[in-house]
Amino acid sequence: MKEILQNIKEKAITSINETTNLNDLNDIRVAYLGKKGELTAILKGMKDLSQEERPVVGQIVNEVREIIEEALESKKVKLSKELRESQLQNETIDVTLPAKKVEIGHRHPMNIVLEDIKRIFIGMGYEIVEGPEVEKDYYNFEALNIPANHPAKDEQDTFYINGEYLLRTQTSPVQIREMEKKTPPIRVLAPGRVFRSDEVDATHSPVFHQIEGLVIDKNITMADLKGALAVFAKELYGEKTRVKFRPHHFPFTEPSAEVDVSCVMCEGKGCRMCKGTGWIEILGCGMVHPKVLEMCGIDPNEYSGFAFGMGLERITLLRYEIEDMRLLFENDVRFLKQF
User: Fold this and answer.
1) Tally of domains within the chain
2) What positions does the entry give for Mg(2+) binding (predicted)?
């Protein structure tokens, strides 16, 4: 047994001295001192020895273990030092090189404008609401007083999924859903993505964003609508901003109007931005049609209301003097980092 232990010690020391890397050194540790190592096997076999031999052999095993462990630790320190010296020589750092610049992201210009618009209307008591982008034909058209033969339902203008469902062409369906499930007074703002079958150019896209507002209460008049939009325009474009209402037609409002604001660049004097008119169109609006109120279960004899809708892209283009809407979607960092 003593000879076996002596051979194990000599083999282990020789292997340790000959190894040149830390991985092989760890393999040697496992081979001799691991759970299935040679020295561990000797300890397991001590049950077959006589009572007189066990203490003697046990002492020799412990001595051999200590010698092997010391040799392993000494070799580990030596190899680690050599590895570090090699890394210091081969992996030197040139401190004169410029550091990597950390690019910090920021909000998209449309998100900046959207948050400002939300803040303005929340300050006037509006609630932000959302609805499905895949919408029923009923909510997108019929409930908005747009019958089956209306030009707005032309398949050339609308992405139909089937006869009942389509990709919404406006966020107005959200207003209908809110009127169906809530009892007046109602004050909501509905921003969201909408879809129309348009060719992509500087002012059109098949995917864009709308923001629509709705107020339903007793004794709501056109004066309330004009007052709300005047406050909105001044908050968004500045205190000197003026608003102008022009008669228009929308199936779901009566009377209806388009709203212009005085040009923020020339203050109404006329410039390239406003094409010399001094005014820029920003949204459409009107008093909610009595038929729409009836279809939503609201008595038009007791309640009235107004609605308005604007394109987020258009508002953003005007605010930052951007001439091509495609720039908002191309993800060009050189463009986006200006805002």
Assistant:
1) 2
2) 254
Residue 161 lies in a domain: yes
Residue type at position 314: R
171 lies in the same domain as 118: yes
Shared domain check, 172 and 301: yes
CATH number at residue 229: 3.30.930.10
> Measured at the alpha carbon of residue 103, what is the angle toward residues 100 and 105, in degrees to the nearest 5?
170
Identify the residue whose tokens are 């859903």.
177
CB 307 within 8 A of CB 213: yes
- Domain hosting 245: range is 109-336
- Residue 19 carries which side chain, given as an amino acid letter? T
DSSP 118-129: HHHHHHTT-EE-
- Answer yes or no: do 123 and 84 share one domain: no
Q: Is the pLDDT of residue 33 over 70?
A: yes
Q: How confident is the model at residue 91 (pLDDT cuts 50, 70, 90)?
A: confident
The pTM for the full model equals: 0.67
CA 60 to chain centre: 68
Helix (H, G, I), strand (E, B) or coil at 250: strand
pLDDT value at 117 more than 90: yes
Q: Is 53 known as a binding-site position?
A: no
Quickly state the pLDDT bin for 46 (edges 50, 70, 90).
Answer: low
